[in-house]
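Hi, here's the filled form for the chain we discussed.

Project: internal
Contact: R.S.
Residues: 317
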Amino acid sequence: MIEPLVASTRVRSAYASSEHLKWLEAQAIHIIREVASQCSRPALLFSAGKDSVVLFHLARKAFCLGTRALALPFPLVHIDTGHNFPEVISFRDEIVKQTSAPIVIGQVDDSIARGSVVLANPLASRNEVQAVTLLETIESWGFDALLGGARRDEEKSRAKERVFSIRDRFGQWNPKKQRPELWNLYNGKIAKGEHLRVFPLSNWTELDIWEYIQRERLALPTIYFAHLRAVVPERDLLVPVTPLTPATSPEMIEMRMVRFRTVGDMSCTCPVTSDASTVEEIIDETRAALFSERGATRRDDKTSEASMERRKREGYF
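And the returned structure, exactly as it came back:
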């Protein structure tokens, strides 16, 4: 009598997960279409990470009729710090080539050349200063809304943010000046100089993302899956050995089987120990995870509990 009960429980669990993903997908597509209808010059932030891959896939679904895919009514935008993992940039370029999606690439190197970004030293992290390049790109192209893949479960300051998050004429975010969002009604009105950051994946979790990737069979950069990599243990993190984060001593280097839960700058993004080489295995790991992906992998979020909120107030994603 035990086996039929267990099987029945599994069937109900799978059905509940499927229905949940359908609801999340429908909500996200509704939000994307709202942006296209309310905003005159939107764009989609695309880093080639798992969340932006899902968001791009949803955007393509939102503007597809039958079997004939229509062109997206907005371009992709990637802020390239110049410190990205090579696997991620290669994947970005391949996706753009396969889909013929128009893309605007804002280069932090260009901001450095203009003098609007000044680094403490050549190897300094560019993760924080990319906000400057983002705001310059928004102004240069006249974007009035940017769709992003941020989720509320990632970090507590992101949990404060509305789906339609208004930014002032300086590109700054004020959590005390957000609009109510009742009954899935979104207000896209902005004053001159303001713009919106819109987050269709706000209500998704990391597990939702991976289950959707599995359901839709989406491709991802290879660094999301287990591979052998040189790292240096640093407190509770594994710092990858790269030209930007070299080991101070060869004796400190360890070869570990790792994967990345999130992709960001090489200067601040760390992998986690893992043997998960398939989406199914990653889903199992994610179910058992005790820390959020940013909490477990990002050096820039370790500086203080308010580090992300401070960056967001200054224009960060």
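Let me know if anything looks off before we file it.
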